[in-house]
Amino acid sequence: LYFIENITLKMTMEIHPEIRAMYEQVQKHLxxxxxxxxxxxxxxxxxxxxESQKTENELVKEELxxxxxxxxxxxxxxxxxxxxxxxxxxxxVEKRLEYIIGEMKRTDTxxxxxxxxxxxxxxxxMDLQRRMQERQNQLVQQQQQRSA
Length: 148
Prior knowledge:
mainly alpha, two-stranded antiparallel ribbon, 2 strands, about 5% strand, rod-shaped
């Protein structure tokens, strides 16, 4: 990316239309890559939250399975503790864990998709940079041949 900025600084005021078009394509791909990185970052953040929820629910599950028969289980709903059947509580926590694990898998897949798209954009940018450099070198050679 530094390379592109250097090219533009080194170019004269008269930029060849092909070079300008390639440069604009690079800028478009850079913007797309930034957008992908922002979206991926949000997914990674979501993944961390899901991991925390999973850990918390695993602790609750463990505590529920260590309860003695007849022990009371209460669920906090707003400011009130409501009595709940231990077997219902276990089932609810199991279902919640299944859901969280499913969401984690979905999020992991989404993150991988964003990483692949980022890599594709990176490759396009590098290809355009290479083509710009090659075309710039051709133009310089043509200019030198005309001057000779």
